[in-house]
Design a protein that fits this description.
The protein has 123 residues and is mainly α. The protein has one domain (3-114). It is 65% helix and 0% strand. Helix 1 crosses helix 3 (41-62), helix 1 crosses helix 4 (70-92) and helix 3 (41-62) packs across helix 4. Keywords: Membrane, Transmembrane, Transmembrane helix. The chain crosses the membrane at residues 41-62. Residues 94-123 are annotated as: Disordered. It comes from Pyxidicoccus parkwayensis. This is Holin.
Length: 123
Amino acid sequence: MSDVSIILIGALGSALQELLHWYGLREHLSTPRYKELIKSVGYWVITGLMILGSGVAVWAWFGGDGNLPARQYLIVGAALPLIFKKAVEAVTGEKTAPDTRATPTGPKLSDYFRSSGREERVA
């Protein structure tokens, strides 16, 4: 398998993970916080870089290992953003439970790491 194929399959895995993330948030997309986040160019630039970076990381990890099944590249590509978010959480000490209120200053880089889909429920 070519290097470009490995990168693209890894990136596809990461993009599918992002799609599943937003599918999990489907009930909360009408909240002001998520409406603002969806329209944020910065959030989508970071997300795109994470998707591309995951593909490159898959290539760096597996590039010289011969012909592995494409599903292995896909799954590792999907897992890398989650591992990265957890690593950032461990280093910064921030929990990833997002606040559903709109942030007055607009979305920030930290919003990418907090938008894990876990919501605080009001009884």
